[in-house]
Amino acid sequence: MPWIKGGWVGKILTIDLTNSTCYNEELPKDLAMNYIGGRGFGAKILWDRLPPKIDPLNPENLLVFSSGPLTGLPLPNSGKLDVETKSPLTGGWADSNCGSAYNPSFKKSGMDVLILKGKCDKPKYIYIKDGNVELKDASHLWGKGVFETDKILREDHEKNALNLMIGPAGERLVRFAAIMAESGRTAGRAGMGAVMGSKNVKAICISGSKEIAIANPDEFEKLAKEAYEALRKSPMYNEWMRQGTMLTIDWSNENSCLPTRNMREAVFERANEINGDKMEDLKVGVKSCFGCGMACGHIDRVREGKYAGLEVAPDYENIAMLGSNCSIAPLESVLKLNYICDDLGMDTISAGSVISFAMECYERGLIDKIDTNGLDLRFGNEEAAVKLLEMIGYRVGFGNLLAEGVRRASEKIGKGSEEFAMHVKGMEISAYESRAAPAMALAYGTSDIGAHHKRAWVISWEVKTDRLGVSKEKAAKVIEQQNIRSSFDMLTVCRFPLVELALPYDYYPKFLTLATGYTFTTESLLKAADRVFCLTRAFWVRELGYYSKELDYVPLRWLKEPLPSGPFKGHYIKPEDYDKLLSWYYELRGFDERGIPKREKLIEMGLDYVIKTFESMGIWSYESIK
């Protein structure tokens, strides 16, 4: 392709699973320039090619895997891959990404994007080597856990191939099932694994040997060396290398935002038993994704007791949601829960949320042992949590209800449980209790996949400023972070160098320019991110047929129930204050009072095709506003 100088490969591969056929098409230049890669590619492809309002588990739903122009290149933390689809958990836009040491194989096999459509007639796995595609029988893999599946694939194919797999949870369409890459590397949120399972695809094994071109290799190498050196010189580097994300357990507990007992509380009295220091005590090694300059995969091994020998790489989100949020400690017990989720192929955040929700329902007397198949679901019951996770992953008994996610479970249980079902748009909230952090609450509320910290981790900034205040500045900060983080998912590289070690953002448009040979600036890259965020919001409007600000509300617990303990005891977010933040957010985003992008905003973003769809739906008509 004459316009490609580097960065992009130039190919979109589509596999029609129903017909066992595949075809390649050239990557359009305007798609690359305006949507960059990763989440941007997925947003435009799903808008253009997905039949509107289709059931997410219908075979015609599309599952898109997309790299970015920086994926697999020799720069810090470039081992990411993005996945996009319509979510079976929320019914709206969904994307998730995973890191891996093997992600460069995706582009080296000769593609920027892989699209799966249709459904295999029986369980199969996909083997791609340097652009050659085979659909292979997976009957010997179906029903197996992720770790065994990975082992078999590496024995049967290349040891350094990229394996994207589902576990039993994905096979059984658990609505928060994940797609796994290696041990614990996960495209976890929004039910990606359920969509893959609905297509009867157990795994995708990708091997590639083609080189990824760089338009200006000498200058690129010089800039990359400078960036790696900047990471090593960061004041936080040594501490990060000791504990990675597990540093956040103590930070969250001290700052009263550690989710505890279904986010009923924000401090955990046993935090020192699951924190970074405890993780260090058990650490036996470190692993990282491709190109990483600041490895976050700290591998723990349980030394004694019933879980002796178990190895897991803990992460803050996993440990907080399965640990403090379920009132479970010590760390060894939480590592067991983490391992089960990884092997069954389930999102640890959603899993911890549904278990803690069930525990609160049990303690409130809304469900009993008859409902739970005999399990005593009081907070802190580790053995019950272990059994319940397995019941969820295999959709057995009470686990079948929780496999639907916390929103659907609360609707079924009723009795007021909806008020402490901790989700936004059906997506379980990740590990920051935010009654004393209104900007973080706004970030959760307005996230385009439902409540997820990766969209805008604004709480770190908020605790250093006017923490409890409500201001237009906070709404602006949420938007700023959402756009910056969207750009990372479009470039498809890890955000940790910026977020954790303060690598200046202006490195990234420079990398993009040198890789592709086309000039990008901070302003043009962030405008592209703004464009994609508008498009994913428009996707929600199209799929639902409407939008209202209630969809951007956080759970009622945060709006009416004061914190019962800790340094911010008594605090909650007044509904009128949240409405102010939401109104400022909409104003600054260019959305109307319902949360729908205005016509002039869409024109500014170059989204004329969205305008045509909205007009055909009557979105801006007087009747729709009523």
Offer a concise description of the structure:
The protein has 27 helices and 17 strands. The longest helix is centred in the C-terminal third of the chain and has 23 residues, at 522-544. The N and C termini lie far apart (50 Å).
What would the keywords be for this entry?
626 residues; alpha+beta; Aldehyde Ferredoxin Oxidoreductase,  A, domain 1; Aldehyde Ferredoxin Oxidoreductase Protein, subunit A, domain 2; Aldehyde Ferredoxin Oxidoreductase Protein, subunit A, domain 3; six-stranded mixed beta sheet; 27 helices; 17 strands; disordered C terminus
Class by alpha and beta content: alpha+beta
Question: Rounded to an integer, what's the Rg over CA atoms?
Answer: 23 Å
Biggest sheet: strand arrangement: 2-1-6-3-4-5
- CATH superfamily (homologous) name of the largest domain: Aldehyde ferredoxin oxidoreductase, N-terminal domain
The global form is: globular
- The CATH architecture name of the largest domain reads 4-Layer Sandwich
What does this protein structure show overall?
The strands form four sheets. This protein has a six-stranded mixed sheet with strand order 2-1-6-3-4-5. A six-stranded mixed sheet has the order 8-7-12-9-10-11. 41% of the residues lie in helices and 13% in strands. A hairpin with a 3-residue loop joins strand 10 (179-181) and strand 11. The chain contains 27 helices and 17 strands. The chain has three domains: 11-207, Aldehyde ferredoxin oxidoreductase, N-terminal domain (Aldehyde Ferredoxin Oxidoreductase,  A, domain 1), CATH 3.60.9.10; 239-428, Orthogonal Bundle (Aldehyde Ferredoxin Oxidoreductase Protein, subunit A, domain 2), CATH 1.10.569.10; 438-625, Aldehyde Ferredoxin Oxidoreductase Protein, subunit A, domain 3 (Orthogonal Bundle), CATH 1.10.599.10. Helix 1 (29-35) crosses helix 2 and helix 7 (217-233) runs antiparallel to helix 21 (507-516).
